[in-house]
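Cross-check.
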Amino acid sequence: MSRVLVVVEHEAGAVAKPACELLTLARRLGEPVAVVFGSGAEQAVQRLGEYGAVQVLSVVDPAIHEFLVAPKAEALAQIAASTAPAAILLTSTAENKEIAGRVAIKLESGLITD
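Predicted model, tokenized:
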């Protein structure tokens, strides 16, 4: 079954509701793999599993907190290149739209936004 990457927004491990909704949607498309930026992934693992994540990938890098999107886009592109997902899902925020655009360029892939 194909993997579907879901970028999960959280605050100190508390998962944002829209991310949970994306994980639920991702189950219809394949195996949801949660991608969590920053510390706090450990606290979120159980909740992410409840919403269908079969794996949680945590990206902890000081640059993530220093810069807005470039380090996140680079990390997500590297994860996507190594896992070859069927899709990458992000919630519809200004930051995530910029991340999605950068990742699409790096991967030379399509992009759909609202």
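Residues 3-107 form a domain with the Rossmann fold fold (CATH 3.40.50.620). The chain has one domain: 3-107. Passed to J.P. for a second look.
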